[in-house]
Amino acid sequence: MTTKYSEDHEWISVDDDIGTVGITNHAQSQLGDIVFVELPEVGSTLEAGDEAGVVESVKAASDLFTPVSGKIVKVNEALDAEPSLANSDPTGNGWFFKIKLSDADELNSLMDEASYNELIAD
Amino acid sequence: MKDEDSGSVLKTTPLDCLHQSLNARMMPFAGYSLPLQYGSGIITEHNHTRAKASLFDVSHMGQIRIHGADAAEALETIVPSSIDDLEPGGMRYTMLTTDVGTIIDDVMVTREDDGLFVVVNASRLEFDLPHMRAKLGADVEFEILKDRALIALQGPKAAAALADLSSEVTGMPFMSARTITIDRIETLVNRCGYTGEDGFEISIPADSAEDLVRALLADDRVEMAGLGARDTLRLEAGLCLYGQDIDEKTTPIEAGLNWTIAKRRREEGGFPGANVIVSQIADGPTRRLVGIRPEGRVPARAGTTINTVDGEPLGEITSGAFGPTIGGPVAMGYVAAGSSDAGTAVQLDIRGKTVPAAITTLPFTPRRYFKS
Questions:
Q1: B205: buried, middle or exposed (CB in 10 Å: 19+, 13-18, 0-12)?
Q2: Is B300 left (phi over 0), alpha (psi -120 to 50) or beta?
Q3: ∠ at Cα B178 (B172, B182), nearest 5°?
Q4: Domains present along chain B, CATH in parentheses
Q5: pLDDT tens per residue, range B155-179
Q6: Could you write out the three-class secondary structure of B48-114?
Q7: Does the CB of A78 have a partner CB in chain B at under 8 Å?
Q8: ipTM field
Q9: What is the β-pairing status of strands B32-37 and B185-191?
Q10: What distance in Å separates the CA atoms of residue A71 and residue A28, rounded to the nearest whole number?
Q11: Helix, strand, or coil here: B314?
Q12: I need a surface site. Which of B79, B157, B222, B358 has the fewest CB within 10 A?
């Protein structure tokens, strides 16, 4: 299992060819109280960088992107009833979707934890 | 998630150091760096205001003094409300209107012994001043109070918390003002607010503002709250935000502010746009500001199209957010007057998806102003 990070402040944790995607603790803290998450449709095929949904905080809506290409195989339905999971446990129970990677090489262009921590330290 | 643009050179308020020390998340607003929220977040700050009392730094707002015994009579020539019948210490919510009856700014006016104290929106000060000077003439003397902070203490425990610093606030009617000395500092305390709760706005010399805020924060019932909570509180309370719900394209009658225009002013006119406003009162406007309750959880933001259930355009949302007290999305917007009755089913177009919603009366949450 490897975890990588995108410049859009998302994490992806990959097990075989399935990646689980969510937002980082830094992202949830910047967004503030999350009140609604619009998730992609299961079965849809997305390219890396495509819009995969929307995160609504009290104040504003922010786009959610997929850090890799592939097919959406599962979404976190617990977020429908409890969107605040994305605040309280962004890297655990607050995950957003699982995607079957079409090109595992794309992971190489994402950041490791040390590089990501450097990005948000600025 | 895209990072927000970092602001250019922003003005700061006299409480800027305090905000930094409390780890506020700052945001640009009307040219100022102001707290969006503090550590606990918007929902917690909102709920605390409804339950106890919160302090808001609203020092960005323009504070103006208009001098002279005839200031009230003069101001009536540019606003539709009765000002000249206010006793000293009395307050009115009113608006500067254009010659076509639309709104240049919404303002709070307090009558003083020898003039008026007026609070205007920060973003509108640069438009209000030339307008007022041109309309009122050179004989009316203005003073922009630049060296003062404005602090709002809002919530059901606001009066008790402030009374611990000065018993003089006890029993003040809502929409009244009093000059009160707190810890040897002369302040102007106005019992009013923008949250739907009882509360006060306190105008205080800039260099004493932090001491007063720290004295109030020492009270367990009082916490800081930012612009985020201020927006959700005022939206639930059905209070208009200039630049969103009202502007130079909307009239007070379309915005449901008829109550601000007294009978004498309707009969006598004598303010800019009186012909438009009086005829809209008589005949009804073609569109009205209403409350909107979207079904489900997705917030409908400003700019969202409001359609009939058959998909015909009815209007547009002007303010929308998640309402923490309501526990779901709440919004305000303009719809055609014929479709503005509470209970009317409508449809919202949110990112290409159709979301059912209902028109409601405003406010969403009852206003709990102090009744003496």
A1: middle
A2: beta
A3: 100
A4: 16-56+151-236 (3.30.1360.120), 286-360 (2.40.30.110)
A5: 999 999 999 999 999 999 999 999 9
A6: HHHHCEEEEECCCCEEEEEECCCHHHHHCCCCCCCCCCCCCCEEEEEEEECCCCCEEEEEEEEEECC
A7: no
A8: 0.89
A9: unpaired
A10: 25
A11: strand
A12: B358
Of B127, B128, B108, B126, which Cα lies nearest the Cα of B118?
Answer: B108
Q: B226 at the A interface (CB within 8 A)?
A: no
- In the Cβ-directed half-sphere of B201, how many Cα atoms lie within 13 Å? 24
Q: Can you tell me which residue has the tokens 């700019």? A: B303
Please return the burial class of B93, using the count of CB atoms within 10 Å of its CB with bins 0-12, 13-18 and 19+.
middle
* Maximum alpha-carbon separation in chain B: 64
In tens, the pLDDT along B183-210 reads 999 999 999 999 999 999 999 999 999 9
- Give the chain A residue nearest B228 (alpha carbons): A59
pLDDT of residue B3: 42
B197 touches B156 (CB < 8 A):
yes
| Span A32-58, average pLDDT | 96
Q: Does B223 touch chain A (CB under 8 A)?
A: no
| pLDDT tier for residue B8 given thresholds of 50, 70 and 90 | low
Closest CA to A110 of A74, A65, A75, A76: A65
Taking the CA of residue A35 and the nearest CA in chain B, the distance in Å comes to 7
Rounded to a whole number of angstroms, the distance from the CA of A56 to the nearest CA of chain B is 7
The tokens describing B48, both together, are: 């605390």
Query: What tokens appear for B187 in the block?
Result: 């302040």
Q: Which CATH architecture has domain A2-121?
A: Beta Barrel (2.40)
Pairing of strands B199-205, A34-38: unpaired
Flag whether residue A106 sits within 8 Å of chain B, measured between CB atoms: no
The DSSP output letter for B160 is H
Tokens of residue B81, six digits: 């409300």
Q: DSSP assignment of A27-83, as one string?
A: HHHHH-SEEEEEPPPTT-EE-TT-EEEEEEESS-EEEEE-SS-EEEEEE-THHHH-T
Neighbours of B89 (CB within 10 A): 17
Of A27, A32, A38, the CB nearest to B298: A38
| Sequence ranges of the domains in chain A | 2-121
